[in-house]
## 1
Amino acid sequence: MLRRFNKEIATIKGVTTKRLHTCGLLIKGRSVKICPVATGHLRGSAYVNTLSLPSGPVTEIGYMAAYALLVHEINRRYRAPGTSWKYLEKAMKESIADCRRILSEKAV
C-alpha cells in the first residue's frame, strides 16, 4: 500500500513540503483517533516529520512509544470500542483521496 501511495504522489507535479506535511497531519489525526488506548502514552507519542530533500519533500508519520509496533501489528482483544490494530495503515487508506486532493490543489 505504501509503495502505491508513494508512486501516486510522485506523479503529482508541484508537491510542496507544506502540502505534504498537511497530509501527514491528517493521517496522524485519523490514526490517533483509532489507536488503542490504555494510558494515552501511545497516542501521545504520535509524530509527523517533514523534510525537504534534493529529491523532493518527504513526510514520516509514526509513534515513538517502544511498544507501538506490537500494538499496530498484533491483533489483540484489549482494544476499546472504536479503536483498532493497524491504526496507522487504516488511517493512510482512509486518507488517500483527501491527500490526492490536497497535493493536487493549484496554488493561489
## 2
Amino acid sequence: MLFLAVRPPDEIARRIVQAGIELCRQHRFANAPFGAQWLHISLLNFGDYAEFPRGHARLARILASTIVAPRFNATFDRAMTFGGRSATANKRPFVLVAPEGHGFSQLQHRLAAAVDVRRRVPFTPHITLLYDRSTVQATSIEPISWTVDEFVLIHAQVKQPTQPKPPYSIIGRWGLL
C-alpha cells in the first residue's frame, strides 16, 4: 500500500496508545491496540501493491512537493467503532475521530486536487486503534491534540495472514507552513 498521511509526533502517539489500552479495558475488546509506529491519519491512498511501486512513489513525491498548506491544530475527542470500507463482522475498526471542519479536510482536499482525484465518500479524519468484532457508539474522550506540521508518504507492505503486521516505511516528508 502506498499512501499520504499525517503521523502524530512520538509523544502524542504514546498518549494515543495509552488511551487505546484504557479504552480496550473499558469496552472489553478481545484485541489490543496497534503500536505507536502504526498510528496515522490517512489522507490519500495510491493503491495496494505486491511489490514496492517505484514509479508511483516517484510521482507521489513529485505531487506532494507541490502542496502548499498551513500548519493546523489537530484534536481527537471521540472514540467509536467506524463503519468504513474495511468493516466486516469480525473486523470492525475502532477509531479516534476528529471534529468536523478540521484542517485534515483542507489538507486532504489539496492533495486530492493535486492528483485530480474526487472523493466519492465523505472524508472523516480518524486514527484506527484496533480491529475487533465489538461495536461501540461514539463516546467522548479526553481530547488529544497537537500541531500538525508535516505530512508523509508511507509504503506499507502487504500483511501475510501468518505473519505479524509489517512496519511502515516513511519514504517522503513535507512540511506545512
## 3
Amino acid sequence: MYKKLSFSIILSMAVLIQGFLVLGWGVSRASAATTQCSDVAIPSGSVVTAVFTTSACGSGSNNTYTVSPATSGLATCAVAALPPGWVTTSIFNSSTCGTSTVGGNTKVLAVPAAGLAICTPGSSFPAGYVATSLYNSATCNASTPSGNTAVLAVPKAGLAICTPGYSFPAGYVATSLYNSATCNASTPSGNTAVLAVPKAGLAICNLAGPIPSGWTVASRYNSAQCGPSTVNGNTSVLQS
C-alpha cells in the first residue's frame, strides 16, 4: 500500500514540476498530460513532452516521461518517433527533455501546410507535398549536406521542386532538370525539376523518373534542358 501511495505522490509531483514546457521558444504548454515510466508504450497519437528521473520508475536516469496528445506548437522530446501526419518546425536542446544530443533533444510539432518550413532531420516528408527550397537553418539545429530545412508546397504544373532525397510526385513528369542554389547541394542530374502533367508530344526528362503509366515513347534524344547526356538519351517525347 505504501509503495503504491509513494508512486502516486512522486509521479503527481513530477507532473506539476515537469509538465510545463519552455515557453521562451514560442511553443505551447502540455495539455492533458500524464506521467509514466519510460519502458511503457506511448499511447497512439501522443508524444513525450518531458524526460526526468524518479525513484518510482527504478534506479536508472531519465526513466520517467510526461506524455501528452500531439498538438500543433507542442514541444516534444526526441526519445520517440512523431505520430503519423506531424512534422517538425524547430529542433533544439532543452533541459526539459533530459540529456542534450548533437541533433537536438526537442522538436516542435506542426501540421503540414503549403509554405511551411519543416526540419528534415526531425520529420518524415509528408505525403502530398513537395519541397521548393532546401537550406540549412539554425532553427533546425545541426546542418546536413542537403540542407536541414525544406519549404513545403502542393505539386502543380510549372512548379520547380527540389529533387534530392524526395520521391517524385505521382501524376507528374519533369520538363527540365538543373542545379539551383534554391535547392542547396548540386547533384549530377540536377537538384531541381520543373513539373508538368503528361500529354501527347510533351518532351520529358528521363532522369527525373520512369515513363508514366499509360504512356509510351515516340522518340528519345539528349537535350540541354534535361541534365547530363545519356547513352539512350535524357529526353523522351510522350505518346498515348
